[in-house]
Specification:
The complex is a heterodimer of chains A (about 110) and B (about 110). Chain A has about 110 residues and is mainly beta. In chain A, about 0% of the residues lie in helices and about 50% in strands. Chain A is built from no helices and eleven strands. Helices cover about 0% and strands about 50% of the residues of chain B. In chain B, β9 and β10 form a beta hairpin. Chain B is globular, with a radius of gyration of 13 Å. Chain B starts with a strand and ends with a strand. Classes of the chains: A mainly beta (about 110), B mainly beta (about 110). Chains A and B meet through β5, β9 and β10 of A and β5 and β10 of B.
Chain lengths: ~110, ~110
């Protein structure tokens, strides 16, 4: 079983749609959770941290469910510029490094 | 420029040659990481430094791979006797603490022909 699992997609949605991605992780001791965004042939960039209480940043909402060991990302009112790969990320047991999921590809169409 | 810098951006090499990549982290960051990413996959951890000490290495890091961070500032990743399977994007990242996430450099794209 992979440490961090994501549906690779692609998710094809029209502009203005709401889209949600889920991710599951295997390490119950993980304490830090993130969503990164990666554009084609570019480096990953931190989109947002994910807190136990959930957090929102504009059109983006992240949720954490520790009991079920999954993380979600909700994007409201999708823009063409949201087209990218979204990487789910958790820290390892010792807290020293981050493990990345394979990414979920989003394509927002006009 | 206060970001993470990687050099070169692209490298094409013949199979069997040695290559070396450089990473300059954000100056205040004591943690430095190397990852490898192939098409359609997420980044895979290779190795991690805290200051000049290499504290963790992945099983992915074969004997042909070596990394250094001699003075706790920049780091180099060397691949000896390159193979076609080494073709990938090599990403460097730095952080103060993993709890705030990483900042990545632009990566070095290696093509072994």
């Amino acid at each position: 079983r992979k440490e961090v699992e994501q549906d690779p997609g692609p998710f094809n949605v029209p502009e203005g749609a709401t889209v949600a991605f889920n991710c599951t992780y295997s390490n119950s001791a993980s304490q830090s959770f993130f969503w990164y965004r990666q554009d084609c042939r570019k480096e990953p960039k931190l989109l947002m941290s994910v807190y136990s209480s959930g957090n929102e940043d504009g059109r983006f909402t992240a949720q954490l469910n520790r009991a079920s060991q999954y993380i979600s990302l909700l994007i409201r009112d999708s823009k063409l510029s949201d087209s990218a790969t979204y990487l789910c990320v958790v820290n390892d047991n010792a807290g020293n490094m981050l493990t990345f999921g394979g990414g979920t590809r989003l394509m927002v169409k006009p | 420029d206060t970001g993470v810098s990687q050099d070169p951006r692209h490298k094409i090499t013949k199979r069997g040659q040695n290559v070396t990549f450089r990473c300059d982290p954000i100056s205040e960051h004591n943690r430095l990481y190397w990852y490898r990413q192939t098409l359609g996959q997420g980044p895979e951890f290779l190795t991690y430094f805290q200051n000049e000490a290499q504290l963790e290495k992945s099983r992915l890091l074969s004997d042909r791979f070596s990394a250094e961070r001699p003075k706790g500032s920049f780091s180099t990743l060397e691949i000896q006797r390159t193979e076609q399977g080494d073709s990938a994007m090599y990403l460097c990242a730095s952080s103060l603490t993993v709890f705030y996430g990483y900042t990545f450099g632009s990566g070095t794209r290696l093509t072994v022909v």
